[in-house]
Amino acid sequence: MKKILSSLIAICALFTLVACGSINKSETTKTSKNTMTTFHALNGDVKVPKDPKRVVVQNYPDEVSSLGVNVVGTDSWAYPNPFLSKSQKENMVDLGAPSFNLEKLIAQKPDLIITVDKDQVADYQKIAPTVLVNYQDLSGITTSLDYFAKLLNRENEKKEFLANFKKVAKKQMTKLEESGITPSDKTVSILELQGSKIYAFGDNFARGGQALTTGLGFKQSTKMAELSKGTGYAEVNAESLNNFDADYIFIDFASADKAQYEALQKNPVWQNLKAVKAGHVIVMDYNQVYFFGGPTATQKELSLYTNAILNNK
Protein backbone atom coordinates (compact mmCIF):
# COMPACT_ATOMS: atom_id res chain seq x y z
CA MET A 1 0.00 0.00 0.00
CA LYS A 2 2.84 2.40 0.89
CA LYS A 3 4.55 1.68 -2.43
CA ILE A 4 1.34 2.38 -4.36
CA LEU A 5 0.74 5.64 -2.48
CA SER A 6 4.34 6.73 -3.04
CA SER A 7 4.07 6.02 -6.76
CA LEU A 8 0.81 8.00 -7.03
CA ILE A 9 2.39 10.97 -5.28
CA ALA A 10 5.38 10.86 -7.65
CA ILE A 11 3.12 10.67 -10.72
CA CYS A 12 0.98 13.57 -9.50
CA ALA A 13 4.06 15.63 -8.82
CA LEU A 14 5.35 14.86 -12.28
CA PHE A 15 2.12 15.92 -13.96
CA THR A 16 2.01 19.08 -11.86
CA LEU A 17 5.51 19.99 -12.95
CA VAL A 18 4.69 19.32 -16.59
CA ALA A 19 1.53 21.43 -16.32
CA CYS A 20 3.47 24.32 -14.80
CA GLY A 21 6.04 23.96 -17.52
CA SER A 22 3.33 24.22 -20.18
CA ILE A 23 1.87 27.37 -18.59
CA ASN A 24 5.26 29.06 -18.52
CA LYS A 25 6.47 27.62 -21.80
CA SER A 26 6.40 30.88 -23.76
CA GLU A 27 8.22 32.73 -20.97
CA THR A 28 10.89 30.03 -20.70
CA THR A 29 11.45 29.97 -24.45
CA LYS A 30 11.85 33.71 -24.49
CA THR A 31 14.33 33.94 -21.63
CA SER A 32 16.38 30.92 -22.64
CA LYS A 33 16.29 31.39 -26.41
CA ASN A 34 19.96 32.20 -26.67
CA THR A 35 21.17 29.80 -23.97
CA MET A 36 20.13 26.48 -25.51
CA THR A 37 21.96 24.35 -28.03
CA THR A 38 21.20 21.13 -29.87
CA PHE A 39 23.12 18.04 -28.79
CA HIS A 40 22.99 14.81 -30.78
CA ALA A 41 22.41 12.01 -28.27
CA LEU A 42 21.34 8.36 -28.43
CA ASN A 43 17.76 9.49 -27.92
CA GLY A 44 17.93 11.97 -30.79
CA ASP A 45 18.65 15.69 -31.03
CA VAL A 46 18.13 17.25 -27.62
CA LYS A 47 17.92 20.95 -26.76
CA VAL A 48 20.24 21.36 -23.80
CA PRO A 49 21.48 24.39 -21.82
CA LYS A 50 24.81 25.78 -23.01
CA ASP A 51 25.75 26.41 -19.41
CA PRO A 52 23.78 23.98 -17.22
CA LYS A 53 23.57 24.96 -13.55
CA ARG A 54 21.82 21.96 -11.97
CA VAL A 55 22.71 18.61 -13.51
CA VAL A 56 21.39 15.22 -12.48
CA VAL A 57 23.53 12.41 -13.86
CA GLN A 58 23.31 8.65 -13.60
CA ASN A 59 26.58 6.70 -13.32
CA TYR A 60 28.82 9.65 -14.26
CA PRO A 61 28.77 12.27 -11.46
CA ASP A 62 32.58 12.07 -11.36
CA GLU A 63 32.96 13.02 -15.02
CA VAL A 64 30.50 15.91 -14.77
CA SER A 65 31.84 17.32 -11.51
CA SER A 66 35.45 16.92 -12.73
CA LEU A 67 34.55 19.53 -15.36
CA GLY A 68 33.41 21.95 -12.67
CA VAL A 69 29.67 21.47 -13.24
CA ASN A 70 27.22 21.47 -10.34
CA VAL A 71 25.81 17.95 -9.86
CA VAL A 72 22.61 18.03 -7.80
CA GLY A 73 21.74 14.34 -8.01
CA THR A 74 23.01 10.91 -8.97
CA ASP A 75 22.20 7.23 -8.45
CA SER A 76 22.75 5.26 -5.24
CA TRP A 77 25.65 3.29 -6.72
CA ALA A 78 27.71 6.28 -7.83
CA TYR A 79 26.85 8.54 -4.88
CA PRO A 80 29.24 6.93 -2.30
CA ASN A 81 32.32 7.78 -4.41
CA PRO A 82 34.98 8.44 -1.72
CA PHE A 83 37.24 10.32 -4.11
CA LEU A 84 34.92 13.24 -4.84
CA SER A 85 35.68 16.36 -2.84
CA LYS A 86 33.36 18.04 -0.39
CA SER A 87 32.70 20.84 -2.87
CA GLN A 88 31.91 18.37 -5.66
CA LYS A 89 29.30 16.67 -3.47
CA GLU A 90 28.01 19.83 -1.80
CA ASN A 91 24.67 19.83 -3.63
CA MET A 92 24.61 16.19 -4.68
CA VAL A 93 21.66 14.05 -3.54
CA ASP A 94 21.20 10.28 -3.69
CA LEU A 95 18.23 9.77 -6.04
CA GLY A 96 17.99 6.00 -5.78
CA ALA A 97 18.77 3.07 -8.09
CA PRO A 98 18.49 1.56 -10.56
CA SER A 99 16.06 4.30 -11.66
CA PHE A 100 15.73 7.72 -10.08
CA ASN A 101 13.02 8.37 -7.53
CA LEU A 102 10.77 10.80 -9.41
CA GLU A 103 9.77 12.80 -6.34
CA LYS A 104 13.37 13.38 -5.35
CA LEU A 105 14.34 14.09 -8.95
CA ILE A 106 11.69 16.77 -9.33
CA ALA A 107 12.66 18.33 -6.00
CA GLN A 108 16.22 18.89 -7.26
CA LYS A 109 14.94 21.10 -10.12
CA PRO A 110 17.49 19.93 -12.69
CA ASP A 111 18.03 21.86 -15.90
CA LEU A 112 19.68 18.81 -17.48
CA ILE A 113 19.35 15.06 -16.86
CA ILE A 114 21.90 12.52 -18.10
CA THR A 115 20.87 8.87 -17.90
CA VAL A 116 21.93 5.37 -18.95
CA ASP A 117 18.36 4.11 -18.48
CA LYS A 118 16.62 4.16 -21.86
CA ASP A 119 13.35 2.96 -20.33
CA GLN A 120 13.07 6.10 -18.19
CA VAL A 121 13.90 8.73 -20.79
CA ALA A 122 10.22 9.47 -21.53
CA ASP A 123 9.54 10.27 -17.86
CA TYR A 124 12.74 12.18 -17.27
CA GLN A 125 12.38 14.43 -20.29
CA LYS A 126 9.06 15.70 -18.92
CA ILE A 127 11.09 17.17 -16.07
CA ALA A 128 14.14 18.53 -17.91
CA PRO A 129 16.13 18.04 -21.13
CA THR A 130 17.37 14.45 -21.01
CA VAL A 131 20.41 12.93 -22.69
CA LEU A 132 20.76 9.15 -22.98
CA VAL A 133 24.31 7.77 -22.89
CA ASN A 134 25.75 4.28 -23.37
CA TYR A 135 28.56 2.86 -21.24
CA GLN A 136 30.27 1.19 -24.19
CA ASP A 137 30.64 4.56 -25.91
CA LEU A 138 32.38 6.18 -22.94
CA SER A 139 35.25 3.79 -22.28
CA GLY A 140 38.24 5.41 -20.57
CA ILE A 141 38.61 8.82 -18.96
CA THR A 142 39.80 10.59 -22.12
CA THR A 143 36.83 9.39 -24.18
CA SER A 144 34.32 10.14 -21.42
CA LEU A 145 35.76 13.60 -20.75
CA ASP A 146 35.64 14.41 -24.46
CA TYR A 147 31.96 13.48 -24.54
CA PHE A 148 30.90 15.37 -21.45
CA ALA A 149 33.02 18.42 -22.27
CA LYS A 150 31.15 18.68 -25.56
CA LEU A 151 27.76 18.16 -23.93
CA LEU A 152 28.41 20.60 -21.09
CA ASN A 153 30.42 23.18 -23.04
CA ARG A 154 33.50 22.66 -20.86
CA GLU A 155 36.40 22.22 -23.29
CA ASN A 156 38.75 24.48 -21.32
CA GLU A 157 38.00 22.66 -18.09
CA LYS A 158 38.68 19.34 -19.81
CA LYS A 159 42.08 20.50 -21.07
CA GLU A 160 42.97 21.84 -17.64
CA PHE A 161 41.99 18.59 -15.93
CA LEU A 162 43.91 16.38 -18.36
CA ALA A 163 47.02 18.57 -18.12
CA ASN A 164 46.97 18.28 -14.34
CA PHE A 165 46.27 14.55 -14.56
CA LYS A 166 49.39 14.05 -16.67
CA LYS A 167 51.50 15.95 -14.13
CA VAL A 168 50.21 13.85 -11.24
CA ALA A 169 50.67 10.63 -13.24
CA LYS A 170 54.24 11.57 -14.20
CA LYS A 171 55.12 12.16 -10.55
CA GLN A 172 53.84 8.73 -9.55
CA MET A 173 55.52 7.01 -12.50
CA THR A 174 58.81 8.59 -11.46
CA LYS A 175 58.40 7.10 -7.99
CA LEU A 176 57.96 3.65 -9.50
CA GLU A 177 60.89 4.04 -11.87
CA GLU A 178 63.16 5.24 -9.07
CA SER A 179 62.30 2.06 -7.18
CA GLY A 180 63.27 -0.08 -10.15
CA ILE A 181 59.81 -0.64 -11.64
CA THR A 182 59.23 0.41 -15.26
CA PRO A 183 55.43 0.25 -15.79
CA SER A 184 55.65 0.05 -19.57
CA ASP A 185 57.61 -3.21 -19.18
CA LYS A 186 55.12 -4.80 -16.76
CA THR A 187 51.71 -6.38 -17.33
CA VAL A 188 48.74 -6.25 -14.98
CA SER A 189 45.44 -8.04 -14.42
CA ILE A 190 42.53 -7.08 -12.18
CA LEU A 191 40.35 -9.57 -10.30
CA GLU A 192 37.50 -9.30 -7.82
CA LEU A 193 35.83 -11.86 -5.55
CA GLN A 194 32.10 -11.74 -4.93
CA GLY A 195 30.84 -14.61 -2.83
CA SER A 196 31.76 -17.80 -4.66
CA LYS A 197 32.36 -15.99 -7.94
CA ILE A 198 35.55 -14.62 -9.48
CA TYR A 199 35.44 -11.69 -11.90
CA ALA A 200 38.17 -10.35 -14.19
CA PHE A 201 38.11 -6.75 -15.42
CA GLY A 202 39.36 -4.66 -18.30
CA ASP A 203 40.86 -1.23 -17.78
CA ASN A 204 37.53 0.54 -18.24
CA PHE A 205 35.39 -0.91 -15.47
CA ALA A 206 36.72 0.93 -12.39
CA ARG A 207 38.88 -1.17 -10.00
CA GLY A 208 41.84 1.11 -10.78
CA GLY A 209 42.04 0.06 -14.42
CA GLN A 210 42.49 3.56 -15.81
CA ALA A 211 44.91 4.56 -13.06
CA LEU A 212 47.13 1.58 -13.86
CA THR A 213 47.06 1.86 -17.66
CA THR A 214 46.20 5.37 -18.88
CA GLY A 215 47.79 6.95 -15.81
CA LEU A 216 50.80 4.87 -14.74
CA GLY A 217 51.45 3.23 -18.09
CA PHE A 218 51.26 -0.46 -17.19
CA LYS A 219 50.46 -2.90 -20.00
CA GLN A 220 47.37 -5.06 -19.81
CA SER A 221 47.64 -8.83 -19.87
CA THR A 222 46.33 -10.29 -23.12
CA LYS A 223 43.03 -11.42 -21.62
CA MET A 224 42.55 -8.14 -19.76
CA ALA A 225 42.99 -6.26 -23.03
CA GLU A 226 40.30 -8.42 -24.62
CA LEU A 227 37.88 -7.48 -21.85
CA SER A 228 38.71 -3.81 -22.30
CA LYS A 229 37.65 -4.02 -25.93
CA GLY A 230 34.46 -5.89 -25.03
CA THR A 231 32.06 -5.85 -22.12
CA GLY A 232 34.68 -4.70 -19.62
CA TYR A 233 34.38 -7.68 -17.29
CA ALA A 234 33.74 -11.42 -17.21
CA GLU A 235 33.06 -14.13 -14.67
CA VAL A 236 35.89 -16.65 -14.64
CA ASN A 237 36.71 -19.82 -12.73
CA ALA A 238 39.84 -20.64 -10.77
CA GLU A 239 41.02 -23.12 -13.41
CA SER A 240 41.13 -20.38 -16.06
CA LEU A 241 43.07 -17.84 -13.99
CA ASN A 242 46.32 -18.71 -15.75
CA ASN A 243 44.84 -16.81 -18.72
CA PHE A 244 45.03 -13.67 -16.60
CA ASP A 245 48.53 -14.21 -15.27
CA ALA A 246 50.65 -11.06 -15.32
CA ASP A 247 53.59 -9.40 -13.62
CA TYR A 248 51.13 -7.88 -11.14
CA ILE A 249 47.67 -9.04 -10.15
CA PHE A 250 45.41 -6.61 -8.30
CA ILE A 251 42.52 -8.18 -6.43
CA ASP A 252 39.75 -6.76 -4.27
CA PHE A 253 36.89 -8.22 -2.26
CA ALA A 254 34.45 -7.18 0.44
CA SER A 255 35.35 -8.14 4.01
CA ALA A 256 32.58 -10.76 3.92
CA ASP A 257 34.46 -12.55 1.13
CA LYS A 258 37.84 -12.80 2.86
CA ALA A 259 37.38 -16.54 3.33
CA GLN A 260 36.91 -16.88 -0.42
CA TYR A 261 40.33 -15.30 -0.96
CA GLU A 262 41.92 -17.59 1.62
CA ALA A 263 40.45 -20.57 -0.21
CA LEU A 264 41.70 -19.26 -3.55
CA GLN A 265 45.22 -18.98 -2.17
CA LYS A 266 45.22 -22.75 -1.59
CA ASN A 267 44.24 -23.51 -5.19
CA PRO A 268 47.14 -25.10 -7.17
CA VAL A 269 46.35 -23.01 -10.28
CA TRP A 270 46.59 -19.84 -8.21
CA GLN A 271 49.80 -20.95 -6.55
CA ASN A 272 51.46 -21.51 -9.94
CA LEU A 273 50.73 -18.04 -11.30
CA LYS A 274 53.79 -15.92 -12.08
CA ALA A 275 52.51 -12.98 -10.05
CA VAL A 276 51.82 -15.22 -7.05
CA LYS A 277 55.28 -16.80 -7.16
CA ALA A 278 56.90 -13.37 -7.39
CA GLY A 279 54.85 -12.02 -4.50
CA HIS A 280 53.19 -9.50 -6.79
CA VAL A 281 49.55 -10.05 -5.83
CA ILE A 282 48.25 -6.81 -4.37
CA VAL A 283 45.02 -6.69 -2.39
CA MET A 284 43.15 -3.39 -2.77
CA ASP A 285 40.43 -1.93 -0.57
CA TYR A 286 37.14 -3.05 -2.13
CA ASN A 287 35.21 -0.04 -0.79
CA GLN A 288 37.63 2.38 -2.42
CA VAL A 289 38.11 0.87 -5.85
CA TYR A 290 35.25 -1.45 -6.81
CA PHE A 291 32.92 0.98 -8.59
CA PHE A 292 34.76 4.25 -8.90
CA GLY A 293 36.74 4.93 -12.06
CA GLY A 294 35.88 8.46 -13.19
CA PRO A 295 38.49 11.17 -13.81
CA THR A 296 38.74 12.49 -10.24
CA ALA A 297 38.73 8.99 -8.78
CA THR A 298 41.36 7.85 -11.27
CA GLN A 299 43.61 10.80 -10.54
CA LYS A 300 43.47 10.11 -6.80
CA GLU A 301 43.97 6.41 -7.39
CA LEU A 302 47.33 7.11 -9.03
CA SER A 303 49.03 7.52 -5.67
CA LEU A 304 46.85 4.82 -4.10
CA TYR A 305 48.09 2.19 -6.56
CA THR A 306 51.65 3.48 -6.64
CA ASN A 307 51.91 3.24 -2.87
CA ALA A 308 50.32 -0.22 -2.89
CA ILE A 309 52.94 -1.42 -5.38
CA LEU A 310 55.84 0.13 -3.48
CA ASN A 311 54.61 -1.20 -0.13
CA ASN A 312 54.46 -4.65 -1.71
CA LYS A 313 58.18 -4.70 -2.57
UniProtKB/TrEMBL annotation:
Gene3D superfamilies: Nitrogenase molybdenum iron protein domain. It is found in: Cell envelope. GO terms for biological process: iron coordination entity transport. Residues 54-313 form the Fe/B12 periplasmic-binding domain. Pfam families: Peripla_BP_2. PROSITE patterns: FE_B12_PBP, PROKAR_LIPOPROTEIN. Keywords: Signal, Transport. InterPro entries: ABC_transptr_periplasmic_BD, Bact_iron-sidero_bind. GO terms for cellular component: outer membrane-bounded periplasmic space. Residues 1-21 form the signal peptide. CDD domains: FeuA. Belongs to the bacterial solute-binding protein 8 family. This is Ferrichrome ABC transporter substrate binding protein. The lineage of its organism: Bacteria, Bacillati, Bacillota, Bacilli, Lactobacillales.
